[in-house]
Amino acid sequence: MASRRALATLGPLVHRRAAPALKPTSLCPRCQSRRQSVSQRPGSDRVHFPGAVNSSFTSALSFTRPSEKDAMPTFRILDQDGAIVDQSQNHPETSKEELLKMYKDMVTVSIMDIIMFDAQRQGRISFYMVSAGEEGIAVGSASSLSPNDPIFAQYRETGIFQYRGFTPSDFMAQLFATANDPGRGRNMPVHYGSTKYKVHTISSPLATQIPQAAGAAYAVKVQNQQNPTDEQRVVACYFGEGAASEGDFHAALNIAATRACPVVFICRNNGYAISTPTLEQYRGDGIASRGVGYGIDTLRVDGNDILAVREATRQARALALSDGGKPVLLEAMSYRVSHHSTSDDSFAYRAKLEVEDWKRRDNPIVRLRKYLESCGLWDDDSEKVLRSEARKAVLEAYRKADKEKHPPLRNMLTDVYEEMTEEQVEQLGKMRGVVERFPDEYDVSGFEEGVEGLRMK
């Protein structure tokens, strides 16, 4: 009775605040088919239950054993010597300009990695992560995405930023947290982000970007439907095989599959989740088998073959836009030839000989260089010029950023709300008072405006 009286009281209020009716939107054929009811016909030879709509009946009791199934194959175009594996396959030609851009981007990233890893060891920056051995995954996939496709990256996707237009100065502004950093110095080093290049800011907590990408892809799906004459976009999401052990991964793939979201999930399987090798992470057939389990079109690709990654991403993007939108999973197989980060010593859990063997035997930069040389597009002189110019550009940006000041200290509190609250203004004043009373304890000369940076403008 009390509940009825409460509802009667709330009735007029709810009526007054009711949202206007939404206009009906057309559902894609795939969504419509999923919403149809499922019935079991008499005498049917297969299951027509909602949970498994096309499973044949059998009188033989036989468990499906993973050990009896072949592992999913790995797609490649180039072998370890940079030669095309199957000349009969008619893959789209990649222009000379595109091939050289991809190669130069990978080399530039690898040179910056070496310089900035050493810079961290010298105390110039607090933290760094390299992408050695995985440059081909980032650059190759970025080359097949539209510049307007939103990207949710992890922390080894430096090549994406490089490919989309980041300059050495852009990287250094973030790494040194200078006043030119769009993130205003609030993030750890290598946590890049760019509104201009449609890349969401990288976040430290593992796997959080995966469900965010699924949600963004649903928004993109709606936008694609509302604007069919505009460029149709997808969302690209990157993560490592270690992140696939997080619950966020499973939630994201299930959401993307059931809501038919146009998202390309790209997993970098580099063999290690910090110090945990893949053999201790899971017993199944890598990460690709999980995509099949969630009803997602899946492909495993050789991450050391940048041409294979490029082609796989191109077709994955087209597939993600088909049938009104659908998720696609790519598992790129690579090997992490460096430490997990500057906070890690990988030789504590793996043999140095193993790492050196991978460096010498196979990596994406060497493989593409061999291919370019076989096509007459590259030689030793070109290599010397590229490495010299790239190193010079990175070092110039490095030295400049090392001398620049950090953003004003008020940026610690701004942008949380549209306007700073009374409490924030009060806190800013108290911080300024402490710094002014103890100037020897708080040296703020490295920040723009010094102590005045703790005043409201």
From TrEMBL:
One cellular component (GO) term of this entry: mitochondrial matrix
InterPro entries xref list: Alpha-ketoacid_DH_E1_comp, DH_E1, THDP-binding
Domain Dehydrogenase E1 component, first and last residues per copy: 104-408
One Pfam family per UniProt: E1_dh
Keywords: Metal-binding, Mitochondrion, Oxidoreductase, Potassium, Thiamine pyrophosphate, Transit peptide
Enzyme Commission identifier(s): 1.2.4.4
EC top class, as a word: oxidoreductase
Cellular compartment(s): Mitochondrion matrix
Main subcellular location: mitochondrion
Cofactor or coenzyme needed: thiamine diphosphate
GO biological process: branched-chain amino acid catabolic process
Gene Ontology MF: a single term: metal ion binding
Coiled-coil ranges (or none): none
Domain of life: Eukaryota
Reaction it catalyzes: N(6)-[(R)-lipoyl]-L-lysyl-[protein] + 3-methyl-2-oxobutanoate + H(+) = N(6)-[(R)-S(8)-2-methylpropanoyldihydrolipoyl]-L-lysyl-[protein] + CO2
Function summary: The branched-chain alpha-keto dehydrogenase complex catalyzes the overall conversion of alpha-keto acids to acyl-CoA and CO(2). It contains multiple copies of three enzymatic components: branched-chain alpha-keto acid decarboxylase (E1), lipoamide acyltransferase (E2) and lipoamide dehydrogenase (E3).
Family of this protein: Belongs to the BCKDHA family.
Protein name from the UniProt record: 2-oxoisovalerate dehydrogenase subunit alpha
Organism: Hortaea werneckii EXF-2000
